[in-house]
Write a structure and sequence with these properties.
It is built from eleven helices and eleven strands. By secondary structure, it is an alpha/beta fold. The protein has two domains: 222 residues, Type I PLP-dependent aspartate aminotransferase-like (Major domain) (Aspartate Aminotransferase, domain 2, 3-Layer(aba) Sandwich), CATH 3.40.640.10; 124 residues, Aspartate Aminotransferase, domain 1 (Alpha-Beta Complex), CATH 3.90.1150.10. The strands form two sheets. The protein has an eight-stranded mixed β-sheet, sandwiched between helices. A three-stranded antiparallel β-sheet has the order 8-11-9. The longest helix is centred in the middle third of the chain and has 32 residues. It is globular, with a radius of gyration of 21 Å.
């Protein structure tokens, strides 16, 4: 309440108010890389759209098939056209060599890269490929704020967007954070504020929308940042408990990352779709929600173009499940027990199917 009281004192509740600007500075200082700024948004989807608009490129945007549909929604909202591409099985993200091949064939304005589940992915090679092809890059790292970020040079045509939704580790209710080059700050703010200055400023996006963060949500963010390190430690301990409980289960694939993620959820790749469905049912019978994630693959959504088959993404989407992770659970052992037993039960049932 102390933070929000400051908004009441000046009667300023939105439109890049002092709390929003203060949160931007705190996020950049805490999570940014040298030479990078942060611009707050109403949500991560708005942040993705604003980044695409700030790039100033109109046309086709490559989007991996293995992601949340908001990624595609942001492309449409920016006035661009998505083109869905497959991923690699090793880290569930786009392969840099395959990206290079696609950019040789397809006319593309920008590329959206996705860090699946917020797990750290080094996109340095991908950015180099895009730079060579002259296309912009927007990294959708919705669930990854607070995870280790590879050191790389800040570039004008590269943005990284994080979600501050209530379901994310750094949750404030609704919110997004866009990290990018300082020279793009005005373009981002313009895109998030209807691009009101566009008629007199040809260097700004030609149009925009209402994507600003409220002072109420910024106040929550300022309070959240103070306790975030403890929340991350709790979530990492939760994930470690899953690793220890499931490491001996045959037929499943666990994340390769163990120490630097912030763990919105704990993804487990099951041996089959039937095994996943069985695990979900077993957990639900004990009152625990185990979720399907990135399902179905975007290549299976209506009216979306694909650059070839997306067999890997479709296979993963059919088999992936997400185990819950909590920041302040008092029943961690019980949650891990139920979730782990459901996974084991699904694997055993798969042999019957």
């Amino acid at each position: 309440m102390d933070y929000y009281r400051a908004a009441h004192e000046v009667n300023w509740f939105t439109n890049f108010g002092p709390l929003s600007l203060r949160l931007e500075s705190a996020l950049a200082r805490t999570f940014g890389v040298p030479g990078e700024v942060c611009v707050a948004a109403a949500n991560a989807t708005a942040g993705l759209s604003a980044a695409l608009l700030a790039l100033g490129r109109k046309g086709t945007v490559l989007v991996p098939a293995f992601t949340f549909p908001a990624s595609v929604g942001a492309v449409y909202a920016s006035g661009n056209e998505p083109l869905i591409i497959d991923i690699q099985e090793e880290n569930w993200a786009v392969d840099a060599a395959e990206l290079d091949r696609i950019l040789d064939v397809w006319p593309v304005a920008s590329v959206m890269l996705v860090a699946p589940f917020g797990l750290p992915v080094d996109f340095s090679e991908h950015v180099s490929v895009c730079r060579r092809h002259g296309v912009g890059v927007v990294i959708d790292n919705a669930a990854g704020l607070g995870a280790a970020r590879p050191a790389r040079k800040t570039e004008e045509n590269v943005f990284e967007v994080f979600s501050l939704h209530a379901t994310k580790p750094f949750g404030i209710g609704e919110g997004g954070a866009i990290f990018g080059h300082p020279s793009r700050s005005n373009a981002l703010r313009s895109a998030l504020n209807f691009s009101l200055d566009a008629p007199a400023r040809p260097d700004l996006p030609p149009w925009g929308f209402n994507g600003k963060m409220s002072e109420f949500h910024a106040a929550i963010g300022l309070a959240q940042i103070e306790r975030f390190p403890n929340r991350v430690c709790s979530r990492q301990a939760f994930a470690l408990a899953y690793f220890e409980s499931l490491s001996d289960v045959p037929g499943i694939v666990l994340p390769k990352e163990r120490s630097h993620a912030v763990w919105q959820i704990f993804p487990v790749l099951m041996p089959s779709a039937a095994a996943r469905e069985h695990a979900i049912s077993v957990a639900a019978a004990e009152g625990l929600e185990v979720r399907r994630y990135y399902n179905p693959s975007l290549s299976r959504w209506p009216n979306l173009r694909t650059a070839g088959h997306c067999h890997i993404a479709e296979n993963l989407a059919n088999r992936m499940c997400a185990l819950p992770v909590r920041s302040d659970a008092n029943d961690t052992e019980e949650i891990v027990r139920i979730a782990s037993n459901s996974i084991r039960s699904g694997v055993r049932a798969d042999k019957v199917f």
